[in-house]
Q: What sequence folds into this?
């Protein structure tokens, strides 16, 4: 019942975003099972994005440590994706790849377990601490999205004559969408305009924020976050579906 109540409380865009990332996560994970080792880190990383976004429908998300875990998973997701694209670029240059799929899965599970243990042995984070963790996650996403766009450009330059090169053009578009999504969210956080935490900040500072002075800008940025999050999820699912047809 609590799960259904949480779903009912979500606005349409939040629900669509979670569903779109759920589909993208399922497609990317299936893609990792059925294709070469070099794709494993990339596809697992995109699957982890869904895990990080699923806090919106997690019936136990009121436990602060669990909410913090979702944001840590989001940070691990972009780091795993970046590692995967770096591996693919090295593969394009040397045609060599080390390790196997099982090792990638086990390392990912190990890092998730270590993160969970870290949260368990430390004090329960306050709402402000959780906000800081989310801000760090967004900052890492913004920085590594730029790195990934450059890696994708280099990969495309190396394989532009192959059929699969079009898939990397699509990946470039995906990361532009993600950069807009995460970058706008970070912008709202830096100026303390993120809606979820506005009341907390007002209580902490005991003074009115400048939210009303920039109401139009803030509302526009929030809409960008909603739309860009949905478009990012849908585009990831579309890219992996397209790649799956190319590789088969």
A:
């Amino acid at each position: 019942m609590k799960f259904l109540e949480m779903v009912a409380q979500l606005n349409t865009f939040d629900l669509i975003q979670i569903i779109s990332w759920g589909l993208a996560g399922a497609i990317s994970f299936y893609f990792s099972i059925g294709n070469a080792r070099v794709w494993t880190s990339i596809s697992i990383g995109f699957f982890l994005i869904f895990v990080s976004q699923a806090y919106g429908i997690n019936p136990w998300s009121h436990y602060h440590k669990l909410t913090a875990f979702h944001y840590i998973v989001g940070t691990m997701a972009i780091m795993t994706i970046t590692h995967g694209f770096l591996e693919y670029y090295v593969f394009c240059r040397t045609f060599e790849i080390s390790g196997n799929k099982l090792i990638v899965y086990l390392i990912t599970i190990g890092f998730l377990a270590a993160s969970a243990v870290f949260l368990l042995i430390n004090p329960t984070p306050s709402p402000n601490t959780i906000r800081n963790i989310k801000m760090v996650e967004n900052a890492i996403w913004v920085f590594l999205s730029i790195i990934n766009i450059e890696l994708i450009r280099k990969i495309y330059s190396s394989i532009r004559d192959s059929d699969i090169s079009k898939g990397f053009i699509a990946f470039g578009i995906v990361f532009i969408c993600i950069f807009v999504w995460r970058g706008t969210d970070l912008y709202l956080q830096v100026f303390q305009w993120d809606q979820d935490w506005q009341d907390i900040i007002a209580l902490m500072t005991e003074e009115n924020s400048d939210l009303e002075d920039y109401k139009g800008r803030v509302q526009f940025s929030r809409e960008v976050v909603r739309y860009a999050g949905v478009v990012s999820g849908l585009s990831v699912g579309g890219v992996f579906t397209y790649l799956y047809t190319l590789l088969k």
Remarks:
- The chain has one domain: 2-247.
- The radius of gyration is 19 Å.
- The chain has a mean pLDDT of 81.
